[in-house]
Design brief:
single chain, 204 residues, 74% helix, Tetracycline Repressor, domain 2, mainly alpha, Arc Repressor Mutant, subunit A
Amino acid sequence: MDKDAKNRLIEAAMPLFPAKGYAGVSIREIAEAAHVNSAAISYYFGGKEGLYEAVLDVLFSQIDDAIHTVDVLQEEPQEFIQRFAMMVLNIHMHNPYIMLYLYQELSHPSPYLEQIIQKHIRKAFNTIYIAISKGISAGIFKKDINIEHAVMSLAGIINFYFFMTPVRKIVLKNYADNEKEYVQQAISIFLNGIRRNCDEKKHT
């Protein structure tokens, strides 16, 4: 077997699953796109289901990689949130399929949805939770905010932009895509919303 066949199968399958749905993609179609024999899918992954799981792992492990490049305990909370947001942007920019798979899993859950959440998304949630908690303890963020709500708001602010790409292109016909500018402005709005103001600090 070609030692690169495994990676080629993952790369070939990545756009096919969200485009046609899991059931709509055949083993033969994936193998032809990867320029390998159909038997390679069983050899490397045990079948189409195993290949789908491998694609999900490759996609969502990028979140883990991003988390490991920063230390939430060492950085200032605001700077950490800004850096984390830009890392998420970078993931979206380099791999637009990640949002398609997440949407597909949320709409039609596979047996792997919980695995994605527990193995990858929960880590991101916990990391942001720590950053906001640290900001509250340091007197930077408002002490009465619901941290879980704040984390969900941050996730929505960053990711919804990419969910809305098809709608955005129709509704905002003259809109010039500038993902970096959007994320920077969105994070600024988010931080201004949870940051303590001067009056609050005077009364503590």
